[in-house]
Design brief:
It contains 14 helices and no strands. By secondary structure, it is mostly helical. The protein has one domain: MetI-like fold, CATH 1.10.3720. α5 runs antiparallel to α11, α6 packs antiparallel against α8 and α9 runs antiparallel to α10. The radius of gyration is 27 Å and the shape is flat.
Length: 303
């Protein structure tokens, strides 16, 4: 018995939704597996921070604490005023540096993306050259500490990372992709350069601004090297440098300890410092994640 093409199509049609559902199920399982792999290290770190030092030494790391203990957090909370002050310094440096760097970097990148800007090529080469080569540690230290007199000030933690050449080139590339018709139509409506930049260009550049803001905030939040170079006042110690100092002190105590009972909880304190360090930045990820998938200028031009 021969079937007509329409009858064959009718027989094949019911199986297509099943295949689509099976494919969607496999996709969801794959995404769930990848998500579990990404979350697993964080769960292990939190579990280790809530475990006793003896259980970590004897049995190692696990998904759940074998012997529950908050000794690591109690050790870190031995000086709550210093820890709270370090949190405040790091938060101020991160917020101020991210917002200021984002503003200055975008103001520098936008003229470099305009083809009618006369000095576009020389300035682009200058930015690219500074991304490959820098002045070195000693000249930078001399400029910051002796020329600008920023030693033991919070600005020594902000200004060295305020403008990052890679961020400038990333913003310039994104600005260059903006349709010229939008800029020309805004200029025909009487928009000045600053009004065009703040009212048209920046709202259309939300995805790249969010990406750069995330990278810059991570750069400021995780940095402790600048504090090692320029900060001697304990009231200005950022969080990361304080945690590094605590871990170094624990290692020194354990090297001089005679017995296991007098040793400090080194492993659990390391994990607890990681939890304290990554806690606030997780909220930044969740806040900026929605901007990564946005289109550039969807619906901005009609016709």
């Amino acid at each position: 018995m021969h079937l007509t093409p329409s009858e064959r199509t009718a027989e094949l049609t019911p199986s297509q939704p099943r295949r689509a559902q099976v494919g969607k199920l496999f996709l969801l399982l794959a995404v769930a597996a990848i998500g579990a792999i990404c979350v697993l290290p964080l769960v292990i770190v939190i579990s280790a921070s809530l475990s006793s030092e003896r259980s970590l030494v004897e049995w190692g790391y696990s998904l759940l604490p074998r012997e529950f203990s908050i000794a690591a957090y109690a050790y870190l909370w031995h000086q709550p005023d210093q820890l709270a002050a370090s949190y405040g310094i790091t938060t101020f440096v991160t917020v101020t540096g991210t917002l200021g760097g984002l503003l200055l970097s975008s103001l520098l990148a936008y003229p470099l993306a305009r083809r009618d800007f006369r000095w576009r090529r020389p300035l682009s080469f200058y930015v690219f050259f500074t991304m490959l080569f820098n002045g070195g540690l000693v000249p930078t230290y001399i400029v910051v500490s002796q020329v600008l007199h920023l030693k033991d000030t919070v600005w020594a933690l902000i200004l060295p990372y305020l403008i990052v050449p890679w961020f400038v080139l990333l913003l310039r590339t994104f600005f260059a992709m903006l349709p010229v018709e939008i800029i020309e139509s805004a200029q025909m409506d009487g928009f000045g350069e600053y009004r065009l930049f703040f009212r048209i260009v920046l709202p259309l550049s939300t995805p790249v601004l969010a990406t750069v803001a995330l990278f810059a905030s991570l750069n400021y939040w995780n940095d402790w090297f600048l504090a090692l170079l320029y900060i001697d006042d304990r009231r200005l110690l950022p969080l990361q440098y304080l945690l590094v100092t605590i871990i170094q002190n624990i290692e020194a105590i354990n090297m001089s300890a005679n017995t296991v009972t007098t040793a400090a909880p080194a492993e659990s304190v390391r994990m607890a410092t990681a939890v304290l360090a990554i806690g606030p930045i997780v909220f930044v990820y969740s806040f900026l994640q929605k901007y990564f998938v946005q289109g550039l200028t969807v619906g901005a031009i009609k016709g």
